[in-house]
Amino acid sequence: MGMFESLTVLLTGATGGFGKEAARRFYAEGANLVLSDLRDEPLKAFAGEFDSARVATLAGSVDQESVAADQVALAVERFGRLDVAINNAGVANAMKKLPEISAEEARHVIDIDLMGVFYALKHQLPVMEKQFRETGRGGSIVNVASAAGVSGAPGISVYAAAKHGVVGLTKAAALEYVRRGIRVNALCPAFSRTPMVMTMLERDMAATGASMAEVEANLTRGIPARRLGEVSEIVEALIFAASPANGFYTGQTVQVDGGMTAI
Ligand SMILES: NC(=O)c1ccc[n+]([C@@H]2O[C@H](COP(=O)([O-])OP(=O)(O)OC[C@H]3O[C@@H](n4cnc5c(N)ncnc54)[C@H](O)[C@@H]3O)[C@@H](O)[C@H]2O)c1
After folding, report:
1. What residue owns the CA closest to ligand 1's atom 43?
2. I need a labelling partner for 27 at 20 to 30 A (CA). Which of 10, 50, 69, 157 fits?
3. Strands 8-12 and 84-87
4. 119 an active-site residue?
5. Could you tell me if 135 and 59 lie in one domain?
């Protein structure tokens, strides 16, 4: 029997680097999936990997509260419950110093990375609490923050602010619901090999004329391991935090960062 056998897992940013790997892992461990991301076409194409009886999709932007409500409603309608929510969708601001970031870009990042998680929690917590009252089983939520959510991150200040906010929401929600059957944790990876980071590196190569090896070495010089995280390494920690076997673990930041925040 899988670790998430017959549990319903809702995953945002489902067609991104962490999202795809996480969906595959939860599915392999027996979960039913509710997959959400911005665009319908890639979502449907990805969902085609799985048995259609065990997957549902919903396209929409996480900065819209109605999308968070619809995701939860879909989980309940299709699979009867919501057991695990992985609030993973996110964007980074383009690397630049704080005064160079426009108010518009800052608001865009905060709307998606911080307000998106706020809307998600606002709609996920009451459903999980109701399940706990009725069945004795609540749920587990993992918000994908960042190492930039627990330490300063030069060049991505607004992203760091949003991710610090996600850690704040996580801890407060964990404490509000710790005796109501719900665990809430924040995953805090350092730079990892996903499309988000590869796009950042390609932009850096174009701007500087440096090679991929050079821009990668530059990006990872603050990471004691001196390398990017691999997607599977990050998702391993995500699974650990979400697992129902891990019932005493809540309100934590799960740092997966090659030693970066140990300095
Ligand atoms: N890759 C890293 O190094 C790293 C490090 C720390 C934290 N993170 C966080 O991990 C999460 C996943 O990122 P990733 O690295 O897999 O990047 P990614 O770009 O591969 O995936 C992000 C996904 O989020 C989706 N998304 C973006 N805006 C959205 C919106 N408004 N509504 C719905 N979906 C939206 C994208 O379509 C994409 O599928 C993000 O929250 C990111 O901030 C990533």
Report:
1. 90
2. 69
3. parallel
4. no
5. yes
